Amino acid sequence: MKLTLKIWRQADSSDPGGMHTYELDEVSEDMSFLEMLDVLNEQLIEQGEDPVAFDSDCREGICGMCGLMINGDAHGPEVTTTCQLHMRSFSDGETITIEPWRADAFPVLKDLCVDRSAFDRMIASGGYISVNTGSAPEAHSVPVPRDDALRAFNVATCIGCGACVAACPNGSASLFMGAKITHLGELPQGQPERDSRVVNMVAQHDHEGFGGCTNIGQCTAACPKEIPLDVISQLNKDLRTAMRHGH
Ligand code: SF4
Ligand code: FES
């Protein structure tokens, strides 16, 4: 495949940045999107140019490091992570536009790399269980209804990639936050801190500069783990309950 790439280049957070155009002549449709960028970077290094900075780690759809805006879609045209996207999803001769996540709470560090530490601070504010659960319990010693266990497991698949924020016109992290609230709130171990968790996480979310949810739904459409929109309803319900309890 031959491709034209229009890529956002930005030296650091103080640089205004801009789009640069590159041509690639030999891309296999079996390459992953990140392998295609590796080929570009080898070409740039050979030419003595600065390679394009982008994040990745596991390259297996697990770690959440690799988000890019591809032709205006978070993680590109498939429901998957950028590292699991393959070039067969594009056509020979196509022009592909590649940008970093765009959100006030995710400032650009360099080129396609953004600072997502706002998510870490949200988790530190309440996205954990600190009760002592002891050693590995006997199976069924704390019965968890099957539907609750399944829901907790399904929403625990959130990898913190930030696509939901990048896709949301408000730059809201409500889907990410709702996934954590629902995951922990479905389990018995999550109950003691349930009220303080939601209050503190929402306060940190707003403090970080994420926007509010207005039920647009782009977050769930962009989510590579298909986290459902109703986790945001759960988030709002838990917040109302916590306020009724005097938080
Ligand atoms: S909810 Fe989905 S899109 Fe948002 S951080 Fe989690 S996995 Fe990524
Ligand atoms: S590099 Fe880990 S999810 Fe893509």
From TrEMBL:
Pfam families: Fer2_3, Fer4_8. InterPro entries: 2Fe-2S_ferredoxin-like_sf, 2Fe-2S_ferredoxin-type, 2Fe2S_fd_BS, 4Fe4S_Fe-S-bd, 4Fe4S_Fe_S_CS, Beta-grasp_dom_sf, Helical_ferredxn, SDH/FRD_Iron-Sulfur. Its EC number is 1.3.5.1. The keyword Transferase does not apply. The keyword 4Fe-4S applies. Binds 1 [4Fe-4S] cluster. Binds 1 [3Fe-4S] cluster. Belongs to the succinate dehydrogenase/fumarate reductase iron-sulfur protein family. This is Fumarate reductase iron-sulfur subunit. It comes from Nocardioides euryhalodurans. The lineage of its organism: Bacteria, Bacillati, Actinomycetota, Actinomycetes, Propionibacteriales.
